[in-house]
Amino acid sequence: MRYLSTIKRALAYQWGGPPDLPQSLKLEWRFVGIRWVGIAFVTPGLFLANFSHEQLLKAYLVILFAAVYNLGVHWAIRRYPSLIANGYVTTLLDGLLNVALIMVAGGFGSPIYYILYTVTISAAMRFGYGPAIAMVMLYVIPDAAISLLSKQLVEAPFFFRSGFLLITAILAGYLREQAHRAESALHERLHQANLLDEVTASLTASLELDVVLRAVVSAAARVFGSSITTLMLSPEIDDAISETRDVVCYPDSSDQKSRHELAAIGREHLSLPFRHANAQKLLPEERLSSGERVRVLRLSLPTHQSVLAVLILVTPLGQPTQLLDPDIVESFTERLTLAIENATLYQALTKRSTDLQRAFADLARAHQELLRVDEMKTNFLANVSHEFRTPLTSIRSFSELLLSYGADDPTLHREFLDIINTESERLTRMVNDVLDITKIESGHFDWQMKTVDMANLIRETARAHATLFAKQNLSFQAEVADALPVVHGDPDRLQQVVGNLLNNALKFTRCGTIRLTACCSGPEVVVSVTDTGIGISAKDHERIFEKFQQVGAVLTDKPRGAGLGLSICREIVEYHQGRIWVESEPGVGSTFSFTIPVSLSRRAPAQPQTLPAKELVQVGLAS
Question: What's the whole-model pTM score?
Answer without folding.
Answer: 0.49
